[in-house]
Amino acid sequence: MSWIIVGLRSLVTWSAGVLATIVLAPVVIVVALFNDTSPWIDKVIRLWSRTWLVASRSPLTVEGGEHIDPRRSYVVVSNHISTLDIMICLLAAPIPIRFLAKKELFRVPLLAQGMRAVGVIEVDRSARRAAHAGVNKQAKALIDKKRSLIIYAEGTRPRDGVMKSFKKGAFTMAIAAQLPVLPMTIHGAFESMPPGKPWVFGGPVKAVVDPPIETTGMDGSGTSALRDQVFDIISTRVREMGGRVGPAA
User: pLDDT tens digit string along 176-208?
Assistant: First the structure.
């Protein structure tokens, strides 16, 4: 693919994504003022997500969607390889679902107000222990509203595309809330839109959903085993689809 095409695709993708944010963020802000659990919010969020994938020419295939019960809430755990991961997860799991975002994103006008309106959880990584308490408080408020959470257990996007070990936070949260963990594996997003770079190459992306793992009756002593179980599931999927995996914790 020539760099001229890559440049044009990158320009189209970022322009479409920014425009979608400018147009749709005020919509969810207004809707949330009247009803922050309105199904229209999730329709708008999925439209925003679809805009990014269409503009980047990254057609999405979902496998295992039958494992998602729309009547239940989950802690969705996925690998993290691209900016497109959020959009892919929001479309692959057609349930009211929110995610954690670093505090820097909450400095972006309109995007910040839109994220706060729909309940996206703000994470200040520099705050450490205080950050965990804040995240847990925000997560409980979402769970009480029957929302699901997407958590990328690696903690950040690896710049080399190699899946890293999982941290315990997602699994601690799932056990505390007694919510099932829903493993989701993303493939192709790194090649389509590598993290830390402005370039968009496009190409097919895929999300594979595995059966949920129940946490009912678990306590904190089962956190490490649950983390390792989910890591094994997702890492196996990554390898099956040609991806690369680093060592487990």
Answer: 889 999 999 999 999 999 998 899 999 999 999
